[in-house]
Design a protein that fits this description.
mainly alpha; about 65% helix
Length: about 110
């Protein structure tokens, strides 16, 4: 385990990994349902947006799970500092600390 993940409670990280894994499974099932062809052209535009949002969610969850496995979870990808646990509790897939996220969007 890396020093970075040592700064977070191991039990919390284990629970987070379980929660993210369940969310990944749920989003995968949702994507399967959304991509089933209903034959209704009126739903095509709405479904396309839902599919895109679900795929983005899956990418974010998968990234968080990869960082957990690799030991880099909770480290800002821009400056390398620890991301506040409070931020990760609200946004478990966060890749940047708040200041770097603001710079990223700004």
């Amino acid at each position: 385990m890396s020093e970075r993940t040592d700064s977070y409670d191991q039990r919390w990280l284990t629970e987070l990994e379980t929660t993210l894994s369940h969310e990944f499974e749920a989003q995968t099932a949702r994507l399967t349902e959304l991509t089933a062809d209903t034959g209704d052209p009126a739903e095509a535009h709405t479904n396309a947006a839902l599919i895109a949002a679900t795929r983005q969610s899956l990418d974010q969850i998968a990234g968080a799970l990869r960082r957990l496995t690799a030991g880099g979870y909770g480290s800002c990808e821009r400056c390398g500092t620890d991301i506040a646990r409070e931020r990760l509790e609200i946004l478990p897939h966060a890749r940047f600390c708040v200041p770097c996220q603001q710079k990223q969007k700004g």
